[in-house]
Amino acid sequence: MKTMPTSDRRRGIRALPDARDGHELVASPLQPEGFTVPASRWTPPATRFRSLLEGEPYLFGPGVYDPMGAQLVMYHGFKAVYFSGYSFAIGHLGTTDMDLYSGPEIADGARRTVSALRKFQLTMAVGDPDTGIAPKPLDIPPVVVDMDAGYGNIFNVQRQTELLVTAGVAAAHLEDQVLPKRCGHIGGKALVPAQEMVGKLRMMRAVADDLGVPDFTVIARTDGVSAVDAPERARGLSLAIARACHYLETGIPDLVWCEFPTSDREPVEQFADQVRRRFPDARFAFNWSSSFKWYLDSNPLTFAELGELGFKFIFITLGGQHAAGHGLSTLLSAMAERQEQGYIELQRREFEPGADVPTRSHHEFSGVPYHHLLGKSYDAARLGREFVEELPEEKVV
User: Fold this and answer.
1) Per-residue confidence (pLDDT) for residue 21, from 0 to 100
2) What is the dihedral of CA 123, 128, 132, 136, to 10 degrees?
3) Per-10-residue mean pLDDT for the chain, 397 residues long?
4) Rounded distance, CA 226 to CA 197, Å?
5) Which of 19, 243, 350, 359 is most buried by its number of CB atoms within 10 A?
6) What pLDDT is recorded for position 182?
7) In the chain, how many H helices and how many E strands?
């Protein structure tokens, strides 16, 4: 049996000679006896994110706004999660992305999401012994969070960064808009002076380093392409390129992100080329934005092409929001027309042979088997497999 470091033995983690799907599996004190989780559980999220950035041609993070969405991202094997500000505004306040929520609100949403992913790893690693669902070892995807324009001055940035770093977030991006800011695809954006943005970026880096998380990834975003007001004379793509180079010159941001107004590939290619002429090792983030009608683009940028241009982190901000809106609208429309038959149609799709819909049993998805098994081992009241009702599988989920 492999010997674990002293610190691991102290917390009760035991290495087991077990591996599945390339995972090194180890026992955890939060698992029932005989079950294991991937050893990557104890790699700090910021460290894991940096490692993925170095090792992958590009890293894609689907955009979500709540723990359940992030758990689905994890279930389907994506290596990163993007926690979108616009999605958060719609999903939690039912409003738009025009600086209408506070920093601590989205930080709390991110904190609950990181916590939920850690719990989801435990529950999926148990499966359901009663129904023959095999344990599913899943790595926890690092979470990248929208930090908007920092919610105030450098001390607001200080507070927000501390909230995110201590929540276990791996990375965050900050934009150079004036407050109140707005979505990068809503007109009327204005930019703060470049040095004010640099001060905020410096504060992000300083907070992460002070908290002992030097691997925390800082992403600098510029809205220069579409800004209608800025201290510089330049406008459009020239301003965005100048801003990106100014931020990279400081050595602070790990990635720079330019927000583009359309899906056109030429400005993206020009931005990457011009910035890399001055900073050959520059790495970028890219919003494959839900604001664009990609289905009408005759030659849409692919993730692979973006990776070759130096875009190391790619995300779709409101992908989860649009999918949830489409799915729920489809169900509601069907129930409005056909009442209970509309829901029955949904269940038929969920339980089609070969369908991989983890939420079709909300009990299994939320970890009821795990809670029974671990609850029994901790002598919790009325928790244990003996309390599970014997019901025919064809009758209940």
Assistant:
1) 58
2) 0
3) 36 46 86 95 98 97 97 98 95 88 96 98 93 93 97 97 98 96 88 98 98 98 95 95 98 98 96 98 97 95 98 96 96 97 97 94 93 90 82 83
4) 17
5) 243
6) 87
7) 14, 11
Active site amino acids: 183
Angle CA 379–383–386, to nearest 5: 110
> Which residue, 70, 81, 94, 286, is CA-closest to 184?
286
User: Distance from CA of residue 374 to its chain's centroid?
Assistant: 28
Spatial contact of 190 and 233, defined as CB atoms under 8 Å apart: no
What tokens were used for 368?
């009821």
The structural domains of the chain, ordered by start, are: 39-293+300-317 (3.20.20.60)
Long-range pairs, 72-76, Cβ under 8 A, ≥24? 72/358, 72/359, 73/141, 73/320, 74/117, 74/120, 74/121, 74/138, 74/139, 74/140, 74/141, 75/120, 75/124, 75/136, 75/138, 75/358
Q: What is the number of other CB atoms lying within 10 angstroms of the CB of residue 114?
A: 23
Contacts of 164 (CB under 8 A, 6+ apart): 107, 110, 145, 147, 172
Strands 284-287 and 81-83: unpaired
HSE, CB side, 13 Å, CA atoms: give it for residue 117.
32
Pairing mode, strands 37-38 and 23-27: antiparallel
CB atoms within 10 A of CB 119: 15
Amino acid at 175: E
**Do 301 and 268 contact (CB within 8 A), yes or no?**
yes
Strands lying side by side in the sheet with 23-27: 14-20, 23-27, 37-38
Tokens of 228: 């209608």
Pairing relationship of beta strands 14-20 and 23-27 according to DSSP bridges: antiparallel
CA distance 297 to 259: 18
Give the C-alpha distances (Å, rounded to integers) separating 78 from 262, 263, 283, 348: 26, 24, 21, 26
> Of all helices (H) and strands (E), which one includes residue 238?
helix 236-249
**Residue 54: partners with Cβ closer than 8 Å, 6 or more residues away:** none
* 107: its two tokens: 């930080």
CA 164, 165, 168, 173 torsion: positive or negative?
A: positive
Residue 7: what pLDDT?
39
